[in-house]
Q: What sequence folds into this?
């Protein structure tokens, strides 16, 4: 198993996407990239800690390459929005990749270049996703884990944001989606 850490807005939403990807064995919501040690959700929401809501993805590289994982990430959120995703505004919702080694850093640079070319051709907008780290990972509180699977369908915010992301995943990456 390998590990990837990515941020692309609300972690409930990114977690829901990657739980449906073949080769992914676990997804953990958490915080990364800030200065406050052991931050809480309330501290993160203030925008003052510098952390991003992010997910830590455990995946099998024989079933899903890191590059493919990043391509899914770039396609299932808007990497052209600076410090926001839709109505979620603030640095805690930034689009970022946190590579764990030099090989992941090189793949992250390549994935951003691919996404920038794709978005530029279709929307004229530039990708603003950052490559950050190394940085300390902090797991989010237990009530955030597996949020979509547990309670998301009863949350109007999740119902508005997550199904379109899942539809895009199924349309654009059909061969990589769990049955």
A:
């Amino acid at each position: 198993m390998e590990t990837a850490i990515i941020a692309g807005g609300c972690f409930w939403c990114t977690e829901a996407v990657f739980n449906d990807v073949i080769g992914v064995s676990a997804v953990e919501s958490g915080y990364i990239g800030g200065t406050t040690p052991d931050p809480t959700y309330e501290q993160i929401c203030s925008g003052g800690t510098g952390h991003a809501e992010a997910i830590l993805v455990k995946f099998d590289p024989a079933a899903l390459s890191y590059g493919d994982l990043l391509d899914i990430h770039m396609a299932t959120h808007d990497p052209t929005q600076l410090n926001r995703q839709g109505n979620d505004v603030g640095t805690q919702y930034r689009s970022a990749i946190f590579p764990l080694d030099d090989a992941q850093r090189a793949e992250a640079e390549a994935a951003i270049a691919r996404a920038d070319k794709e978005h530029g051709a279709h929307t004229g907008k530039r990708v603003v996703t950052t490559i950050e780290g190394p940085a300390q990972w902090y797991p989010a509180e237990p009530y955030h884990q597996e949020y979509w699977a547990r309670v998301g369908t009863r949350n109007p915010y999740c119902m508005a944001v997550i199904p379109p992301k899942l539809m895009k995943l199924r349309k654009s990456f059909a061969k990589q989606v769990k049955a």
Notes: The chain has a mean pLDDT of 95. The two ends are 21 Å apart (CA to CA). DSSP finds six helices and eight strands in the chain. The first helix runs from residue 11 to 18.
